[in-house]
Amino acid sequence: MTTPETVEFLTGGLRPHECRSCGTCVLVKKNSINHTSIQWTTNAAESCPVFADADRPTALLDTCPKLSDSIDDAVREGTLVVADG
């Protein structure tokens, strides 16, 4: 059984973010400038062109660089907040 504390730990602070390159929506939390939590809400291999074109299993990919750039842009613009300020 999942406790409310576990749910909050796993999902707290996650915000929807739409990739500016392909439009795929993920949930994102910036815990610090260097730490980003991403939860895919779709099958990445089907919704992200970079993952779809991967020449290896997508589980071995760190993340999509275009999505990372999109998240970084949102942080710079202030539309995505970094938790540690």
Question: Can you walk through the features of this model?
Answer:
By secondary structure, the protein is α+β, with helices and mostly antiparallel strands. It has one domain. Helix content is 34%, strand content 18%. It has a 3-stranded antiparallel β-sheet with strand order 1-2-3, with helices on one face. Strand 2 (25-30) and strand 3 (36-40) form a beta hairpin. It is globular and about 40 Å long. The model has no long low-confidence stretch (mean pLDDT 89).
Range of helix content: 25-40%
Give the terminus-to-terminus CA distance. Answer: 33 Å
The low-pLDDT segments are: none
Our estimate of the beta-strand percent is: 15-25%
Topology, pairings included?
Elements: H1 4-11, E1 15-18, E2 25-30, E3 36-40, H2 44-47, H3 49-52, H4 65-77
Antiparallel strand pairs: 1-2, 2-3
Tags for this entry?
85 residues, alpha+beta, 3-stranded antiparallel sheet, 34% helix, Ferredoxin
In short:
The protein has 85 residues and is α+β, with helices and mostly antiparallel strands. It is 34% helix and 18% strand.
